[in-house]
Write a structure and sequence with these properties.
Blueprint lengths: L2 H19 L11 H10 L5 H14 L3 H6 L2 H8 L6 H16 L8 H4 L7 H12 L8 H10 L9 H14 L5 H14 L18 H4 L16 E11 L8 E2 L10 E2 L2 E4 L5 H12 L5 E6 L5 E4 L3 E12 L9 H4 L6 H8 L6
Parallel strand pairs: 1-7
Antiparallel strand pairs: 1-4, 2-3, 5-7, 6-7
Catalytic activity: Hydrolyzes free adenine bases from 7,8-dihydro-8-oxoguanine:adenine mismatched double-stranded DNA, leaving an apurinic site
Cofactor: [4Fe-4S] cluster
Function: Adenine glycosylase active on G-A mispairs. MutY also corrects error-prone DNA synthesis past GO lesions which are due to the oxidatively damaged form of guanine: 7,8-dihydro-8-oxoguanine (8-oxo-dGTP).
């Protein structure tokens, strides 16, 4: 079979499967680049089921790019709270401002121009360009790597930049040039629902008579991904002050790194898990020496290991009662209006702030 015939056979089978099996997702019912951009940014590093409520919340709160641009960063971060990878939210806000103020609210109508937007990489630009403008440009994400590497038995390391170009070229050749949007949706959906990372049910797959990985019993070993992520362990001790009015103190994380511009309690970061004696000594002699401390208690039930992509945070919470009145003290109701990392917000919500 010539490659042209193979490509036609592949995309016809794939699109037929998609039309029969696709999920009913709100961003598939529009060609509005604002909503498609919003959904694509949210779905980076995030499963559809987790991202869906945020998509509805954002489109209700900010129905247009102008509404999002006019919001404060704090409003955006608060609404994003719990979705993680907060640089996405900060870039989202900056891009909304740029589109509203510099482009009169109109998103660039081509892949190359979309790439210039902050937070928009090759995959996101391809998705917006094909879904909104039907531009013939392939998407290449984890799902596409997996489907094509298995179907064609490609052992190229997907962590290498050259491999991305290889897969983009192949996807472009397979793509029907008169229907790029549906093909892109179809191949991603196929990877998400059928050709899943672990234990795919190949017996019901529409490609089980032509998939090379299945024929060669290599499904579990593809795609090839070499580089392992190095995990750093960090040890956070959050110090929850409580004054005579039951108010507390928080601070904004202004340094670059995780949780930039989110709020947290005063933090004591250590090189390992520490005990009561160590924390008590640091609090009374160094951190809060100007306060009249009348009690220190570890909220041991709130201890948690919070796993991020490159870091594992070992988090302990400590309640410190003082007889002073805090100058900038915040009550519990006000506290909940600030954007926090979800691990801290959950602690506040459970009122473990009272241990």
């Amino acid at each position: 079979m010539h490659f042209k015939d193979l490509a036609m056979d592949f995309h016809n089978t794939l699109i037929k499967w998609y039309l029969q099996n696709k999920r009913d997702l709100p961003w598939r019912k529009t060609t509005d680049p604002y909503r498609i951009w919003l959904s694509e940014i949210m779905l980076q590093q995030t499963r559809v089921v987790q991202g869906m409520p945020y998509f509805f919340a954002f489109t209700e709160e900010f129905p247009t790019v102008f509404d999002l641009a006019n919001a404060s960063e704090e409003q955006v971060l608060k609404l994003w709270q719990g979705l993680g990878y907060y640089s996405r939210a900060r870039n989202l806000h900056k891009t909304a401002k740029f589109v509203a103020e510099n482009l009169n609210g109109s998103f660039p109508p081509s892949y190359k121009e979309l790439l210039k937007l902050k937070g928009v990489g090759e995959y996101t630009a391809a998705a917006i360009a094909s879904f909104s403008y039907n531009e013939v440009v392939p998407v290449v994400d984890g799902n596409v790597f997996r489907v094509l590497s298995r179907y064609f038995d490609i052992e190229s390391d997907i962590m290498l930049p050259a491999t991305k170009k290889e897969f983009a070229k192949l996807a472009f050749e397979l793509m029907p040039k008169d229907n790029p949007a549906v093909f892109n949706q179809a191949i991603m959906e196929f990877g998400a629902l059928q050709c899943v990372p672990k234990n795919p049910n190949c017996s019901i797959c529409v490609f089980n008579d032509s998939c090379l990985a299945l024929q060669k019993k290599k499904v579990d070993s593809l795609p090839v991904k070499s580089k392992k992520v190095k995990i750093t362990n960090r040890f956070f001790n959050y110090l929850i002050l409580e004054d005579s009015l039951e108010n507390t103190l928080i601070q904004k994380r202004t340094a670059k790194g995780i949780w930039h511009n989110l709020y947290e309690f005063p933090l004591l970061e250590t090189s390992e898990i520490v005990d009561f004696d160590y924390v008590s000594k640091e609090i009374t002699k160094n951190i809060f020496s100007t306060y009249n401390i009348i009690g220190i208690e570890e909220c041991s039930e709130a201890t948690v290991i919070h796993k991020l992509s490159h870091q594992h945070l070992h988090i302990q919470f400590w309640k410190i009662k003082i007889s002073n009145v805090l100058e900038n003290g915040i009550d519990l109701k006000t506290l909940k209006t600030f954007p926090f990392p979800i691990v801290i917000y959950n602690f506040i919500e459970k009122q473990e702030i009272n241990c």
